[in-house]
Structures are given as C-alpha cells and as structure tokens.
Amino acid sequence: MSLLVAHNLAVARAGVPVLEGVSFTLTAGRALVLRGPNGIGKTTLLRSVAGLQPPLQGQVKAAPDAIAYAAHADGVKPTLTVAENLAFWAQVFGTDAVETAIDRMNLRALTERRAANLSAGQKRRLGLARLLVTGRPVWVMDEPTVSLDVASVALFGDVVRDHLAAGGSALIATHIDLGIEADVLDLTPFKALPAAMGGIASAFDEAFT
Amino acid sequence: MIALLIRDLRLAVRAGGGFGLGLAFFLLVAVIVPLGVGPEPATLAKIAPGILWVGGLLACLLSLDRIFALDFEDGSLDLLATSPLPMEGAVAIKAVAHWLVTGLPLVMAAPVLGVLLNLPLPGYPWLVVSLALGTPALSIIGAFGAALTVGLKRGGLLMSLLVLPLYMPTLIFGAEVVKRGAAGMAVATPLALLAAITAGALALLPFAAAAAIRVNLR
After folding, report:
1. What are phi and psi of A4, to 5 degrees?
2. pLDDT of A46-86, one tens digit each?
3. Which of the residues A88, A132, B39, B61 has the least number of beta carbons within 10 Å of its own beta carbon?
4. Residue A153 belongs to domain spanning
C-alpha cells in the first residue's frame, strides 16, 4: 500500500531550481533513503514533501495528516523540560504516547531536566522522540543522526524499524547507515539543468516575465 | 490550541521569557515623564491620557518580535506548520498569549500609573476600558507585523516601521476615550471606533498573518 507518491517533482531553493523530475513512492513497511552530495537539494525536497514549500512542478500525493516532519532544527524549547516538550507535541497531535517515546529514545533519566541543559546528542534524541508522539505514518527526516553517538544511532535504527514493521514509512536524508533495510534514491541524476540548457525556468524569472 | 497557549505562557514566565518587560517599560515611562515635564498638576493632568496610551503602545511594541522569531529560530515554526494545528489558529493563539503576557498587565497597572500622572478622577474607568478594548488590537496587529518579518535577521526595525502606522487609529481613539472621559464628556463615539478596529483586526489579521508565515517559511 503506498502511503505517499511523489510524481515528477521539481523543487527550487531561494527561487533557483535544484532538482527536477524526481519521482518516488513510499509504501507501508519500507523506508527510502535519499543520498546525494551537499547542496543537491535534499532538504529542499524534504520541505516540499512535508508541504512547507510548493514544488515548481509535479505533485505530492499523500493522505492529509500523514506526514511527520523532523528538520535539522529540533524545535526544542530550552526552558521547558524534556517531558514538557514532548507533552506539548503530544497534545498538538492528539496522542498520548509521551511515556512510550521517552522510554524508546532512552530519555527516562532526563525527563525533568530542562532542554537547555541537554547535550547536543540528547537534544537530538528528544527531537526524534517527537516523531513517536505524532502518531503519523510517514516520517520525513532530515539528517536524523547528526550528533548522535553509535549507540543512539542503533537505538534510533530500532525505533525506525519498529515503525516500519507497524506499517509506517520513512523518507530519510542521511549519509549514515541506520542499519535498516531501505531503498536508496541517489539524487545526483536529478540535478536541475540551467534554463538555457533546457531546464525549467526558475520561479525568480517568472516574476519578471 | 490550548496546549500552544499554555506552552507560550509557560515560556513567557520562565527565565528569559520576556514577561514583565513591557510592564517595566510602561512603569518607567509613567515615572520618568513627570520628572521631565515638571510637577505642575494641571500640565500632567492634560497630557496623562496621551502619555499613558503612548507608553502602553510602545510597551506592546517592545516584545512583538518574540512572538514568532524564537519559534522560527529553533525550528518549532516549521514543525507547527506541519502539525494538525491550522496556522491561522496558531497565530491567533500566539497573539492571545502575547496579550495575556503584555496587554493584560498594562491594563491592570494603568490605574496605578494614572495616579503618578495626576489623571483626573473621572478618567480612570475609561483608561481601563479603553486599554482593555485597545490592547488586543495592538497584539494581533503586532502578530501580523511579526509574521511579515519572521525569518529576517534583526527584523525588529522593519517590523516597527510596518506596525506603527497600523497602531495609529487605535492610539488616537484610545487616547481620545480617556481624554473625553477625564473631561466628563461623552465617550461613545471613540469607544465604538476603538472597539470596531479591534474587532476588525481580530477577524481579519490571523488569516493575513498565517499567509505571511507560510510565504516566509518557503
């Protein structure tokens, strides 16, 4: 069963097209890993899939409220405790999975600690625990393993594997092997051509024609 | 929605949250002005409505850029935009939180500061009523200005320039209510206009602000 279909996507960063003709399908129980050199447009593609910016061309088809997005920034409030941060998102998404998320991401010993006093890796674990409280099937993750140590990467790999086993799906931009069985999509061949070489005109130009 | 309101209020009262910033500024204005203009009761009574309203307006302006800037910097705004909360609702809730943290304390402190400025006795109820009706407009208009400039580094100056002209009708009618009230004249007309501006701003600006944020997040 496909949870999300991206068809012939073209995306632009700051008005300049970076990727075009990207198509993929996310099916229940399978993860898709995006690879490609820095600047190829992984983050831009993920933001388009998550609905934060409209694609230049193509479309993303997914059920409403299917996607949980985890960006580079964790969205963690430094003056709230770990438990308060998670409880907020659980309320926003209308779930009650806070305790499970705390246990799964090994945050039990830190629940009453203010997020400002967490290390970078601990903060990242908190940011990823947020995915668990969203209760959404499609996880769209941008470099989820940044600042995680080997043990935490393994821990997170387990969490993603369980999510897939439960019928979820994941779209991950990462360079690290998470230890999960996943399809790989290399974005290098989809690099957008300049308009002069037959690529699509940039959104920037459109405003002036 | 309620969760977001509780979170914002909690953030405001915790360390570094900016609670009391506007109130302290308002207090300073009311204390310093009599020192500057001299102690003649007649002069102070004449300028009191205007000074109290200008002080309240600037106190509101002071904390506006916090409404969205902090959430933008730490990525929460992206996550809120992809959450089930409608952006319009989130904007409205954030404006409410800003009002509870900044506007409401101003309304409550204003009568005390009116004494410092020798506001004539009949003016007090109208001072409270006009601020209670007018400050919500300051918060929601401010939220719109903050939404327009979210993502700009040090966009505070631009935001002030955008927001101040939009504040003028509220300031003019608000101060007019207090002035007329203090002089014992009828206040119905400026009061109705003040309330109309607030109602219109509350009805329309959450949509405009949400649209501005969506564009700025691209």
Report:
1. -150, 135
2. 999 988 888 888 888 888 888 999 988 888 888 899 999 99
3. B39
4. 2-206
Look at residue B20 and give its three-state secondary structure. Answer: coil
Number of domains forming the structure of chain A? 1
| H-state helical runs in A33-147 | 42-49, 82-93, 98-104, 120-134
CA distances from A108 to A82, A83, A103, A105, A125 (A): 9, 9, 6, 8, 11
Among A187, A200, A205, smallest CA distance to A39 is for: A187
- Do B152 and B69 contact (CB within 8 A), yes or no? no
Q: Where are the domains of chain B?
A: 2-217
Helices (H), chain B: 2-13, 21-37, 41-62, 66-73, 76-81, 87-98, 104-116, 123-149, 156-182, 188-217
* Strand A2-13, strand A57-62: pairing: antiparallel
B79 → closest Cβ in A53, A69, A91: A69
pLDDT in tens, B70-120: 888 888 998 998 888 899 999 999 999 999 999 999 999 999 999 999 899
Residue B130's closest CA among B102, B147, B110?
A: B110
Q: Which of 88-147 (A) contact B at CB < 8 A?
A: 88-89, 91-94, 130, 134
Q: What is the pTM of this model?
A: 0.89
Asked if A24 is an interface residue toward chain B (Cβ–Cβ < 8 A), one would say no
Q: How much helix, strand and coil, in percent to the nearest 5, is found in chain A? A: 35, 25, 35
Which positions ≥6 away from A23 have C-beta within 8 Å?
A6, A7, A8, A9, A58
Q: Evaluate whether A146 touches A96 at the Cβ level (below 8 Å).
A: no
Between CA B190 and CA A17 the distance in angstroms is 53
Q: In what order do the strands lie in the sheet with A67-70?
A: A67-70, A138-142, A169-173, A31-35, A182-186
Q: Is the ipTM of this complex over 0.95?
A: no
Of B144, B146, B140, residue with least CA distance to B198: B140
Task: Choose among B7, B73, B75: nearest Cβ to A88.
Answer: B7
- Closest Cα in chain A to B83: A93
Of A147, A157, A177, A181, residue with least CA distance to A30: A181
Please give the Cα distance from B81 to B79 (Å, whole number). 5
- B97–chain A nearest CA distance, Å: 15
